[in-house]
Amino acid sequence: xxxxxxxxxxxxxxxxxxxxxxxxxxxxxxxxxxxxxxxxxxxxxxxxxxxxxxxxxxxxxxxxxxxxxxxxxxxxxxxxxxxxxxxxxxxxxxxxxxxxxxxxxxxxxxxxxxxxxxxxxxxxxxxxxxxxxxxxxxxxxxxxxxxxxxxxxxxxxxxxxxxxxxxxxxxxxxxxxxxxxxxxxxxxxxxx
Length: 192
Hints:
This protein is mostly helical. About 80% of the residues lie in helices and about 0% in strands.
């Protein structure tokens, strides 16, 4: 089943929900189309499962930024986790972006409930850091959106990054340097 989810993530990222077919997903997985239908019944169910799989990893990354954590280690761990996900799961980020760009027809309820609750808790945490003088005053929502946009850029715009890097993929060493720089930029933005 994992091989089907991985193949579906790539196909949905490359062709979008409408352009993806279970036949193409089966081919990508190296399995008969019947196997895809056996485990997932429909393309829509498979798409939902792919989104859920992406969210599981993203929410695990989000656990590095819990209420009660100190600002420097919380922000450092969260930005690092998001950057690492962009490197390891670029197709997942692209599937998510496609879902949101199309109006979030499948994930709208999640966005308005689970993600909204998570974000509200982090906003309160950031506001607490500001009130306690631990970071400079910033708009907490803007800070979170900045982190999401910056970290996911490396996945969503990977081709652009390669072209602007002289046509070469960023090496692991270069990517680690980018992680360190993004972490430093985020920390400096809040006065750390």
